[in-house]
Amino acid sequence: MSPLLDVQHLSVAFGEGPRAVTAVSDVSFQIAPGETLGLVGESGSGKSVTAFSVLRLLQPPGRVVGGQIFFEGRNLLALPESEMRKVRGARISLIFQEPMTALNPVMRVGDQIAEALSVHGIASGAEARAKAAELLDAVKIPEAVKRARDYPHQLSGGMRQRVMIAIALACRPPLIIADEPTTALDVTIQAQVLDLMRELKSRYNLALLLITHDFGVIAEMADRVAVMYKGQLVEQGGVRQILRQPEHDYTRALLAAVPGMKGY
Ligand code: ADP
Ligand code: MG
Fold this sequence. Notes:
- The chain is α/β, with parallel strands linked by helices.
- The chain has eleven helices and ten strands.
- The chain is globular.
- The site of magnesium ion has 3 residues, from helix 1.
């Protein structure tokens, strides 16, 4: 099967000239339709920069200095911005670590979902509002119709992340990029949100690029894993394979950091 996302030799630098810092260096990976790839590495290893490059959301002075990014057969780096806008949200959506910064604080959550639907021409007006409530129900927010009228601050962190997931799902994208989606949540809530993501993934046949520093999350969620260290991929392969036989010292160190990880 041809990959849904095919990142080839991606390199990203911040700044120019001799003082430029290379944040991502010659990174290549693929994601097949419906597959979950875990991108794991410590803070500062280049995971978010990789994700932002795929969506072309890098802010200057960050810029892609090499490589190609194919999605559904098109080179995203060569698309006009108007085409890229149709990809973002509709074909690839992004879930962040901290939903409070991604949600609009002065807009009811149901309206934010309805807006995602209308921006991409999927539904508008009463139909969009009804679909918004359906989506809140799909992410298991109780009393969805009532909660749709809440503002983000009226919801708990876990519920806000569910709203973010509902927005990400709104256009039924084939690929979701989740950047540390549960890092800000309590352990119990984290497990619930991961369960939800797993269920939605199989229900909607979503591919997922799951970014985390936590190998425990990878072990639970991912089909394959790519290990990032100082801007480079040092190792990638099937999750079971890498859990059993990590090749790189850095991978072993990440595994050792997770309690109860031995015995996989
Ligand atoms: P993480 O793996 O924690 O998501 P990032 O992708 O955010 O790491 O960052 C990777 C590296 O990119 C950082 O260590 C830093 O060197 C560089 N970087 C990221 N954002 C900026 C920025 N705004 N300005 C300069 N350098 C940056
Ligand atoms: Mg990050």
